[in-house]
Amino acid sequence: MTRGKQKIEAQKRNAEKNQKSKGSQLEARAVALKSSCPICKVQLANSKQLVDHYASKHPKDKVPSDLEL
Asked: Which of 55, 36, 53 is nearest to 44 (CA)?
């Protein structure tokens, strides 16, 4: 068991360590979203979702051949 200054320093180290592990998921989201719809600019995770997006949101338009699976 620690006392005094050691205890305070240990609490500070633990607080910094725990704070770094928590973070915004915006960076991870930006990395994961790789493809986007050229019509409405919505970002999607993969080309399969893009094909599904075209089927539901842009049924009159065909999926560009370079974006298909």
From this structure: 36
